[in-house]
Specification:
The chain is of the alpha+beta class. The protein contains eleven helices and ten strands. The protein folds into two domains: 170 residues, Jelly Rolls, CATH 2.60.120.10; 91 residues, Homeodomain-like (Arc Repressor Mutant, subunit A).
Length: 285
C-alpha cells in the first residue's frame, strides 16, 4: 500500500507506504530529496548508510535518514518485517501548499529533524499510533475509496505522523535506557548460537517463566524468540560464509541447524539468496 507525490497533492509529501513482508524484498542503494522516516512494528531490518553506518530496527523502532543520504537494505534486501515509511521535504519549494502547516512550522520541523541526524530510536505510543493511522488511511485508498476522502485521509495522517516524529525524537530514549529483557536475551542468544534453542531454559536464566519471557520478548522486539534467533544465526552465517575453508554444511551444523537443507531454506528467507549464492557474491566484491 503506497502513495506518491503526484497523487497526494502537496510538495511536502514525496511518498509513503506500508508493507507486511513475509520474505525479503530487494532494496538497492538510493537517496531521497527529503527526510525518510521508517518504522518496524514487527520483525527486524537494517539500513546501511553511505560510509557503512548501520541503522538496525527491531519491532517498535523508528529510524530517520537525512536528505540525500545514500542507503540500502543490508545485503541489498529488506528483511521480513511489518514496515512503514514516509518521505517528506519541509524545505521543498511550495511545501506549505496543501500541507496544513505554516512556513514557520515547516522551518522548525526541518531544523529539528536536521539536528537529530541519522538515527534509530524507540517509538513512543503517539508515534506508533500515528503510523497505524497512516496504515488505515492507505487501506481506504487501496480499497478504492471514492472522491477526495482517501487523499485527505493520507495527507492528514502524514502530517500528524511528522509532528509525532518530531515530538518523539525530542523525548525519546535515544538508545540510552537500561537493558531490557529483550536486550539481555539477545546477549545470551548471541553467546550460544550453536547450541539447541530452548525457550524455557533461556527464560530460566533470566529468572522469568517461559510464557512471560515469550510475551515480553515479542512486545519489546516485535518478534518471537525463535524468529529472532534464526535471524541472528543467518547474520553470523553471512560472516562465516566469507571463509572459504568452511563448507555450507559445516556452517549449518556450527549454527545449530539439523541439516544443510534446513539451513539453506532459513537463510534464503532472511537474506534473499542461498548460502552458496551469498558466498559467490562475497567472493566477487
Amino acid at each position: 500500500m503506497t502513495f506518491d507525490a503526484a497523487w497526494i497533492g502537496t510538495p511536502l509529501l514525496q511518498g509513503g507506504g506500508f508493507d507486511h513482508l513475509g520474505r525479503t524484498l530487494g532494496l538497492e542503494p538510493h537517496a531521497h530529496k527529503g527526510f525518510e522516516l521508517t518504522y518496524i512494528s514487527e520483525g527486524e531490518t537494517v539500513w546501511v548508510l553511505q560510509g557503512g553506518t548501520e541503522l538496525r530496527l527491531v519491532g517498535g523502532s523508528a529510524a530517520l535518514i537525512q536528505s540525500d543520504v545514500v542507503h540500502h537494505g543490508k545485503y541489498r534486501v529488506i528483511a521480513p518485517s511489518r514496515l512503514f515509511w514516509l518521505v517528506f521535504a519541509p524545505g521543498a519549494a511550495g511545501a506549505v501548499k496543501g500541507s496544513g502547516f505554516t512556513t514557520a512550522e515547516l522551518e522548525e520541523i526541518g531544523t529539528e529533524l536536521s539536528r537529530a541526524g541519522n538515527r534509530v530510536w524507540r517509538a513512543d505510543a503517539n508515534l506508533r499510533q500515528s503510523f497505524e493511522l497512516l496504515h488505515d488511511a492507505l487501506a481506504v485508498k487501496c480499497a478504492g475509496g471514492k472522491g477526495t476522502l482517501p487523499r485527505a485521509l493520507c495527507r492528514t495522517a502524514s502530517s500528524q505522523l511528522i509532528v509525532s516524529a518530531v515530538r518523539s525524537l525530542g523525548c525519546g530514549d535515544g538508545g540510552t535506557r537500561g537493558a531490557s529483557l529483550f536486550e539481555e536475551a539477545r546477549r545470551l542468544m548471541s553467546g550460544n548460537l550453536s547450541g539447541p534453542s530452548s525457550i524455557p531454559a533461556l527464560a530460566a536464566r533470566l529468572g522469568v517463566s517461559a510464557a512471560f519471557f515469550s510475551e515480553r520478548f515479542k512486545a519489546e522486539s516485535g518478534m518471537t524468540p525463535g524468529d529472532y534467533l534464526r535471524r541472528m544465526r543467518c547474520e553470523r552465517a553471512c560472516e562465516m560464509l566469507v571463509d572459504a575453508r568452511l563448507t555450507v554444511t559445516d556452517i549449518a551444523f556450527r549454527l545449530g541447524f539439523s541439516t544443510s537443507q534446513h539451513f539453506a531454506e532459513v537463510f534464503r528467507r532472511y537474506v534473499g539468496m542461498s548460502p552458496s549464492q551469498f558466498r559467490r557474491n562475497a567472493a566477487g566484491r
